[in-house]
Amino acid sequence: MKHRKYIITGLVLAGLMNFSSCSLGYDPIASYSDVTEGVQDDEGEKQEFQSQADVELALEGLYQKMKDRIEHWYLDCLLIGDSHADNAYAGTTGAETVPFENNTVDGGNTVLERDWSRYMEDVAAANRIICNIDAVSDPNFTADARNSIKAQAEIFRSLVWFYMVRIWGNIPLNTTLPPDITADNIEEVYDEYFPSQSTELEVYQQIEADLLDALKYAPDNNPADKTLFTKSVARALLAKVYAEKPLRDYNKVIEYCSALEADGFGLADSYSDLFALNENGTDLKMRNTREGILEAQFPASGGNWCAWMFGRDLLDWNNSFTWAKWVTPSRDLIALFTSEGDTQRLDESVVYYECTWSNYYPSDHYPFMYKCRAGCSSVLYLRYADLLLLKAEAYLRGDAKNLNAAADIIDRIRIRAGLNKLPDSVRNNETELWKAYMKERRLELAFEGQRWFDLCRWDEVENVMNNLRDEGRFARINDFDKNSYFFAVPQTALDGNENLVQNPGY
Predict the structure, then answer these.
(1) What is the CB-side half-sphere exposure of residue 89 using CA atoms within 13 A?
(2) pLDDT tens across 409-431, in order?
(3) What percent of the chain is predicted at pLDDT more than 90?
């Protein structure tokens, strides 16, 4: 147990340092303080939070993570969800991105290293609230307020785990915060510091339990503010969880998707309403559309740098840019839009202009991802069209099949995009309708980090990716197989925790 040895050694060293501190010229602290001992309750037990305000500040920190730590919350999701699939190229020639395109990702990939460590940090931040909120001694902190904050932290943690379990499968399932480690308690708390992985099924079961608990106490949907972890967010996540193989229950997918409509959600009138700028080109056209379930919002006065990573900040066309963007639309996807006559969604997804590089296309006519077109663009983490299509999937794949209901949903999506309804030859043929569904989901959700996980959920990875013919794509080094559905656990995580096990095939 090398880690245990290191911890014990560290404890000894810490003791020696404390013993010699006065001789090093430091004055001892005469009394206990929050700095030295933490907040104490009347029984002398450590308290993480002193007041309701402290907990609310910690909750605000969770919300802020979805805006400030956009790399693993958005950027890397698109690299994994679109560039590792057939929707996009990796964009650059860098070693951190190209492996997602040519299928050579391994445990040394710096993107996965970043994502693993940051997601684990996110879970710890949520646990800090969940594990300590009941101990706050503030007499003005009501049970309703405590339950609401805890529910929001549970939703946040569930969303993080949902990302992680789809990327890696078996992951550490941390639901507690380990106590400060000492020489006396190391045997008891060691595993909390170096946890082993829970199974994919166990992770999904914990997500399910958290979301069901959150449903009781989370805030109701607020049509004027879609940035909150509400009951509707919990319902949307539950629908997505029940669509995945470990807990697959298509009846519940239908139930929770239908509940979203009862919450007031629906399709925006126009597809462009979700992504477009206003007429003056000074800000996003709309936020908090009836379609948005969970989004991170970036007003023009306080934007983000996503456009710099994906495209060009189109609030300022004269602004120079030299970054070869991560996520370059693929020829295969553009051809699919064109063959369908799907000009509306294509125009909202892809834009062409000049650049200074030619990694995949001529530099004078280079396609860029257009859904994030300015620093003020909102990130739509969950939107109703995604869930509505999942409902159609449930009608197609569930025990009680309903082809007409599935086709009606697909038609709603198509009509909104300016396309004709499905012909009867497709509506009445289960095989053809499934193909139409897969195609519709790809076009509707392009560049929203969904495509790879859709292929995994459908068991279509090998069929689609090994048969992909796209002359602009970096040559595939490794074929996709049953081990490709999950990524490698980062080597840094394995080195830091001997209880972790690498995924098969890496």
Answers:
(1) 26
(2) 999 999 999 999 999 999 999 99
(3) 78
Q: What separation, in Å, do the N-terminal and C-terminal C-alpha atoms of the chain show?
A: 24
pLDDT the model gives residue 45: 61
Q: Are 289 and 268 in contact (CB under 8 A)?
A: yes
Integer Cα distance of 490 and 492 in angstroms: 5
In sequence order, which ranges of 273-313 are alpha helices (DSSP H)? 306-310
What does the alpha-carbon distance between residue 332 and residue 252 come to, in Å, rounded to a whole number? Answer: 34
Mean pLDDT of 180-185: 80
Residue 229 in contact with residue 65, Cβ under 8 Å? no
Mention every residue, 6+ apart, whose C-beta is less than 8 A from residue 444. 345, 385, 386, 389, 413, 417
**Nearest partner of 243 among 119, 123, 379, 396, judged by Cα:** 396
Number of Cβ atoms within 10 Å of the Cβ of 42: 7
Looking at 1.25.40.390, 1.10.357.10, 3.30.470.30, 3.40.50.740, the CATH number of the domain 53-282+326-458 comes to: 1.25.40.390
pLDDT digits (tens, 9 = 90+) for 305-354: 888 888 777 787 777 778 888 899 999 999 999 999 999 999 999 999 89
Q: What is the pLDDT of residue 2?
A: 44
* Three state DSSP letters for 40-55: ECCCCCEECCCCHHHH
C-beta separation of 362 from 354 below 8 A: no
> What pTM was estimated for this model as a whole?
0.90
pLDDT at 46: 65
Dihedral sign of CA atoms 120, 126, 129, 130 in order: negative
Run of H or E including 111: helix 110-132
- Strand positions, DSSP E, 312-413: 328-329, 350-353, 366-369, 379-383
Both structure tokens of 217: 């106490």
Residue with tokens 């507690």: 176
Range in 44-53, 247-256, 468-477 the model is least confident about? 44-53
Residues 6+ apart with CB under 8 A from 222: 228, 230
